[in-house]
Amino acid sequence: MKKIISIVSAAALIATMAAGCSSTEKAPADTATEDTANTENTESTANTDAEGGDTSSEGGRIFGYTCMDGTNPFFVALENSIREVVEANGDTLISMDPANDSNTQIDQIEDMISRGVEVMFVNPVDADGIIPALDMLKEADIPMFGFDTQVGDMSYLVSYAGSDNYNAGYVCGVDLAEKVPEGGDILVIDSPTMQSITDRVDGFLAAIEESGVAFNIVGQQDGQGNQQVSNQKATDMLTANPDVVAIFGGNDPTALGAYTAADAAGLSPMIYGVDGSPDVKALLGSTMMEGTGAQSPMTIGKTIAETAYSWLNGEEVEEFIPIETFLITADNVAEYGTDGWQ
Asked: Residues 60-70: pLDDT tens digits?
């Protein structure tokens, strides 16, 4: 592995990352993200002005950050954890939100390369679609560290930290089979371009198949990991299949979209998501929201950031670092609280 041998002072571009799973607003494509839950930590000591002019202080590395959707509260918490580690080391984090658009993500990564980033934290909108941007980073000798969602070719990455997504879906399927032993019809809202969600759906389907319970998937559509899109997809599927016993969403925004659709239709299927977000945890026990395969964005962010520093310091690091996932339901939600992430 190569070490970074040049330290460049450059500009960090900060922007606003909306909080709350229900938000559908997108941060401007050329701005950096802001953690609305911790506003005092949203600006680095080395920054850029609104026009991108250099206002940075001398010294310190420049790190780049990209995730699929900067408005998703999961990524708000994760980005803030990375930022805390980076800024604690006297360095700068340039953070950009492609708003679930693969072409925008490629353009933004190219922009960050031009701004002098020396290390890149990468979460792809599309696992294969991001490869041209990874080629540009590789050509520029910028090491890449992945988080939460794998890229199409993992050989580009120095290291990757992410949840055990298969297990996050699997524990939801196990719980459903135990609670509905008579079986029934199920809807699934997936997102084929997002490997993390695909893994969760695979785990969920494997669990219900292994259970031997007579479940039947009567509808499966792409919610794009987005609450608004998932709401429409769930509305369409529930219109055609009003008697479903459960809906599985590939992430919590998806599950919330399904929840809103079912509520509007006067239906009450058991709904499962994945994330362990505060919004979903707050609904457990009092609504049709049954469970969430929980993960910890703060642990993922801190782990991959600290791994990057270990590598920069010449230490050997693991290529793949799995982060534990587990089920949160009404039975144990009090252990984790509903005001924040676990």
From this structure: 999 999 999 99
Query: Using an 8 Å Cβ cutoff, are 99 and 69 in contact?
Result: yes
Residues 253 and 140 reside in one and the same domain: no
Number of structural domains found in the chain: 2
Token digits for 222?
């792409």
The token pair at 277 is: 């977000």
Cα–Cα distance measured from residue 209 to residue 26, given in angstroms and rounded to the nearest whole number? 38
Determine the average pLDDT of the residues in 241-247: 98
As to burial, measured by CB atoms within 10 angstroms (0-12 exposed, 13-18 middle, 19+ buried), residue 141 is exposed
Distance CA 187, CA 245 (A): 9
The range of the structural domain enclosing residue 270 comes to 165-295+330-336
Examine the domain organization and report whether 172 and 288 are in the same domain.
yes
What Å distances lie between residue 44 and 41, 70, 86, 310, 326, CA to CA? 7, 18, 9, 21, 34
State pTM to two decimals.
0.75
> What's 46's domain CATH number?
3.40.50.2300
Query: Per this entry, what is the length of the chain?
Result: 342
Beta strands at 289-294 and 326-329: parallel, antiparallel or unpaired: antiparallel
pLDDT tens-digit readout, 200-231: 999 999 999 999 999 999 999 999 999 999 99
CA proximity to 94, closest of 205, 15, 174, 212? 15
Residue 31 lies in a domain: no
Query: Residue 81 in 3-state DSSP?
Result: helix
**In the chain, what is the straight-line distance between the N-terminal and C-terminal CA atoms, in Å?**
33
Q: Which ranges of 313-340 does DSSP label H, i.e. alpha helix? A: 333-336
